[in-house]
Amino acid sequence: MHICYSQRVHVDGTTIRNNIGGKGPSTDGIDIDSSSGVLVEHCDIECNDDDICLKAGRDADGLR
User: Fold this and answer.
1) Cα angle vertex 46, ends 30, 29, to 5°?
2) DSSP 1-64
3) For 31-43, what is each residue's pLDDT tens digit?
């Protein structure tokens, strides 16, 4: 799930499975990117990389 350029987002009760049998792709569960006021709660996340990741954008966008 990629939340990008968003405000006041509520993610509740989501299940994410990217690691079925330990052979899933190397992906994040929830990426929160260049957003504010994001609440993630009661989620069940299993993946091969970060479950929840905070990002500030890429390249010039992230520097801005």
Assistant:
1) 15
2) -EEES-EEEEEES-EEE--GGG---S--SEEEES-EEEEEES-EEE-SS-SEEEE--SHHHHH-
3) 999 999 999 999 9
